[in-house]
């Protein structure tokens, strides 16, 4: 699933590709992709909408359409946008023939198409007047200067769950997913199963720096594209951060820091990758 760096990269690319354009025609090929309003109302409201730019909140793409509405899109597992050149398709049905998993097609005023393709159908569109309708319960943005180590420490108080699972909780902090949680915990030398409220202030400071570093590095690299190719750019190209991952998807390879074999465990039905040698499990030691 695309995480903060991937969604950020897609938002920048979409701003460059479709910012300033007006939507002249909308086709919803699978109504389930439209969370709100009803699909007919969505088509009516989006037709004529002016795309000012595309931003991000958590893992949501945010299309600024000018008051009084904005379009939020969550890509979930396999949702992606593709920009088709003018003349590539006469109409949405033709586009659908070329892309069997096409769910929403929007023709732009220069003749190009903005296509939403989603094999596993979990991606959702939310056309709202107030972003808070969708994002009110999201946690803080980890790259916001207001998200300091002290703020992280406050949020960790009384959290008894495992730190890795907490980092994936979008209400705790927005935008982090499985890849960057594993990478940040490795950088911070923290075991993924550590109980969150047992982290020392030194560990919290390291974790905060590691979260910021790993997300920024991901953005610089244009995100991570894994072998399943579920995250690709709107122009079909791939991210580059997969070459720089230290532990994620590298079980049985050697830890780049200490040379011990990286392990994979399952937490909350998600794979976690870590180094059992240099990500010390203090909780376990306390029990023995
Ligand atoms: Zn190690």
Q: What's the helix and strand layout?
A:
Layout: H1 4-18, E1 23-28, E2 34-36, H2 39-46, E3 53-57, E4 60-64, E5 70-74, E6 79-84, H3 92-98, E7 102-108, E8 113-118, E9 124-128, H4 132-135, H5 149-156, H6 163-168, H7 178-187, H8 201-220, E10 263-267, E11 270-274, H9 282-287
Parallel strand pairs: 2-9
Antiparallel strand pairs: 1-7, 3-4, 4-5, 5-9, 6-8, 7-8, 10-11
Helix pairs in contact: 1-8, 5-8, 7-8
Zinc ion is lined by residues 255, 257-258, 260, 275, 277-278.
Quaternary state of the chains = single chain
CATH architecture of the largest domain: Orthogonal Bundle
Molecules bound to protein: zinc ion
Which percent range describes the beta-strand content?
15-25%
Total domain units: 2
Rg over CA atoms, rounded to whole Å, is 21 Å
- Secondary-structure content class: alpha+beta
Through-space gap between termini: 37 Å
- As for the CATH topology of the largest domain, it is Helicase, Ruva Protein, domain 3
Number of helices: 9
What are the low-pLDDT stretches, counting only 5+ consecutive residues below 50? 284-288
Tell the overall outline.
Answer: elongated
What is the spatial order of strands in the main beta sheet? 2-9-5-4-3
| Secondary structure tally: strands | 11
What is the makeup of the main sheet? 5 strands, mixed
- Helix-residue proportion: 25-40%
Query: Average pLDDT value?
Result: 94
Helices and strands, in N-to-C order?
HEEHEEEEHEEEHHHHHEEH
